[in-house]
Amino acid sequence: MTLRVEVERWPLREPFTIARGAKTEAVVVVAHLARDGLAGRGECVPYARYGETVEGVVEALRSGAPAEGAAASALELAHLELDARRAGVPVWAHLGLAAPRPVPILYTLPIRDPDETRRLAARAATWPVLKLKLGAPDDLARVRAAREGAPAARFVVDANEGWDRATLDRLVPALDALGVELIEQPLPAADDAALRGYDGPIPLCADESFRGAPAHLDALADRYHAVNVKLDKAGGLRPALACIARARALELRVMVGTMVATSLAVAPAVLAAQDADWADLDGPLYLATDRARALHVDAEHRMHPPDPALWG
After folding, report:
1. Which of these, 140, 117, 192, 196, lies nearest to 161 by C-alpha position?
2. Assign residue 179 a region: left if phi > 0, alpha if psi is -120 to 50, beta otherwise?
3. What pLDDT is recorded for position 21?
4. Where are the domains of the chain?
5. Confidence check: pLDDT of 166 > 80
6. What is the per-residue DSSP string for 226-244?
7. 103-303, CATH topology level
8. E-strand spans in the chain?
9. For 65-193, where are the alpha helices, taking DSSP H only?
């Protein structure tokens, strides 16, 4: 078996801004495995929030046995595709999963000023669920503007660790009045203890607080009501499925998310998101161009399972 590792840069259509900064391109690492004339690929995005770097992920992949995180995910996904091709079946069948269905996905609006937020929301008003990136001084004004632009949409907001408990308590009543149905990662992960006793009307979802192992969920269940499971954090598709199963056992709702990446990274997440409460899989939609045989999103904003020529 041979392993080849590539770093690729995919420009975005426009800058994508969250509370921690803006990006203009998606930098991805792709693991290519080959054996007996067959090949498998896995794509990941190094997670800078956890100290991952492109160079570190490449080095971990070339070591052949990355322990966790993005590198482990890329290698596991490449192995899965290669093993399924050797068995002559799709990945979902190789894993004993049901045949995948199209998944309704949400659409994310980056941080912009209220006027631009209103315009972006109006442009995306046909999407059933919009996710607003928050964590700036004018958060409430921007949610109001988004509601004006998309009066019928369901709203999820993501502060990306940008608030404190006082800000959360201050904003929740107004966000509830605006129809927000979920608040993702309101506080820095290190401040999670401050969420104990929260009894607001809007449920809270862990993202950065959840490092990706099923056992981590047990410590979060007393302060969150949902969890965002990402393959790059979990270490691949099978670990992500284990996280989802543990979340359900703890009666946590599930969002399946991805980083801004190409369709190759998101394709396996479509399998993980089959029964998710929210599917945050819109990352490829922000690219200026995507891969050949890119994931298809239909007029009802459902992402279809990948073409086998892409992955799986």
Report:
1. 192
2. left
3. 67
4. 2-88, 103-303
5. yes
6. EEEEEHHHHTSHHHHHHHH
7. TIM Barrel (3.20.20)
8. 2-18, 21-35, 38-44, 103-104, 107-109, 129-133, 154-158, 180-184, 204-206, 226-230, 253-257, 278-280, 302-303
9. 69-87, 91-94, 114-123, 139-149, 165-177
How many C-beta atoms surround the C-beta of residue 113 within 10 A? 12
Cβ distance 70 to 57 under 8 Å? yes
At residue 164, what is the residue type?
D
pLDDT for the residue 20? 67
pLDDT reported for residue 19: 61
| Residue 5 structure tokens | 């590792």
Rounded distance between C-alpha atoms, residue 139 and residue 112, angstroms: 10
Taking only the tens place, the pLDDT of each residue in 76-111 is 999 999 999 999 999 999 999 999 999 999 999 999
Q: How far apart are the C-alpha atoms of 10 and 25, rounded to whole Å?
A: 5
Q: Given phi > 0 = left and psi -120 to 50 = alpha, else beta, which region is 300? A: alpha
Classify 110 as helix, strand or coil. coil
> Domain 2-88 belongs to what architecture?
2-Layer Sandwich (3.30)
Catalytic residue positions, numbered: 133, 230
Side-chain-side CA neighbours of residue 41 (13 Å)? 16
Q: What is the pLDDT of residues 276-307, one digit of tens each?
A: 999 999 999 999 999 999 999 999 999 999 99
Statement: residue 309 has pLDDT above 90: yes
pLDDT at 123 over 90: yes
pLDDT at 247: 98
CB 72 within 8 A of CB 235: yes
Residues counted in the chain:
312
